[in-house]
Fold this sequence. Notes:
2 domains
Amino acid sequence: MTRTAPLFTKVALIGVGLIGSSLAHAMRRGGLAAHIAGHARSPETRARAAELGFCDSMHAEAADAARGADLVILCTPVGALQAAAAAIGPALKPGAIVSDVGSVKTAVIRDVGPHIPEGVHFIPGHPIAGTEHSGPDAGFAELFDGRWCILTPVPGTDEQALSTLIEFWRGCGSRVEVMDSKHHDLVLAITSHLPHLIAYNIVGTADDLEQVTQGEIIKFSAGGFRDFTRIAASDPVMWRDVFLNNREAVLEVLGRFSEDLSALQRAIRWGDGEMLFELFTRTRAIRRSIIAAGQDTAAPNFGRNTKTP
Amino acid sequence: MTRTAPLFTKVALIGVGLIGSSLAHAMRRGGLAAHIAGHARSPETRARAAELGFCDSMHAEAADAARGADLVILCTPVGALQAAAAAIGPALKPGAIVSDVGSVKTAVIRDVGPHIPEGVHFIPGHPIAGTEHSGPDAGFAELFDGRWCILTPVPGTDEQALSTLIEFWRGCGSRVEVMDSKHHDLVLAITSHLPHLIAYNIVGTADDLEQVTQGEIIKFSAGGFRDFTRIAASDPVMWRDVFLNNREAVLEVLGRFSEDLSALQRAIRWGDGEMLFELFTRTRAIRRSIIAAGQDTAAPNFGRNTKTP
């Protein structure tokens, strides 16, 4: 982790929400950039980011942040990436690397790719890290530590630029995997998009159940429900854009999920205890593997502390 | 919390897994029982419980533990309650209170009620607390602190016995609510049983997806999936019994969930961003209420620590 000189002279962050601000903190910690330029569309976010001081300069125009940067990372919701790319395209320096942090990758290649000029290296990326909080106050340097970042270079991507971007993410604490964008979108559909969708859905179902009051839902949420409310509290714009832009893969895994759920429903209706027991035993093993891989804690209840502070 | 004399001279725990052993620890902390007698069916569990020392005596026969007790709490999976009640029935002292900790209540009244002799007070109970761990090693005194315990007395229950049981649970750190067993089963179907069912289901779906390897599921689980694996690691026997014994309420809320999910599926297919945004915004408010009610932590990612220890 000891670095004699910064990896980049100037890095631009287009968007300084949870991921953008965490990247700024992580870059500072790792000594990765001599100058970090930030852009946020809203004056409030720019003012707050300036106050927090995680960027060296804040800009009202994305192009002004991106101008002269060696690395530009688009950190907006997926639905805003096309406009962001169109805005920065003309300001990009030859040889610069452009990346993003969007949760879908095929749609991002479709939307961003055409705006990247010849001689600039566009390499899509996706750090598998986050919290249910959003905005510039939510960022912290450790967010990417031990998490994976997936890069999905298009065929013909410059090897040197790819190596540099891998070094950057490692410097932010990530582990890095490279894969095809279509495969990324399917893997994330099952490990992230479907979990969010069914979490949002069950919270909505509970809220609509007229025989059970909202007070009861809240009081007795420690029975399991509260776990789902965490990811169902994630940023609504970000997640709307994910579902609008990864439709096919999400519909595919959702079809599987619904099929499996129908089989479980039938097992409950017919009192098939063996089928239930078999499934409930199999799923335990996956939890153990996730803990062994350092991707979750073995502490009961995630080690959460619900004591009044 | 200062108590001049124990609330009970003798309390018997029929079953010393996560809940039974936590009750023993909480009773010790609160000075609630002069003597705690424990029973476990398996010799291994009895030996381990004796080693851990949270009971004053361990018994191979449930009746021996229950004999002479002022309070007997059945802490076995719901499917084993009928046999446990049949075993202790003849040994129960007149005036004793019998309760349980099962996650369903109408079926428990059906199964346990007939085995309770005249003059003994049977008051079903359910502490809404737990972890994904099980067995006598998993218990700890703080498990019930700030959580709710629901009691579902049948009509005609002795008021004094009910008051005493409420005092007992408060002494264990719980808050107490009294309701009808049928309402309990519906409330828990949505706040606990359905969340477990869909968690088990999504983990099963992911495990079966042939285009995505298990290694990929594990590596990228921090995208949301890992949250579900926690409750999908809960005790398989306990949960099989819950679904076999709360069939109607679970099928009712599952029907609602599936309907809502179909509407979401349609919104994704037709690109209805407004519908998605509206739902994703509404669900955020419920999270905030749960945190405000002290039922979950506001710390990002449950405050989980995934650093290698």
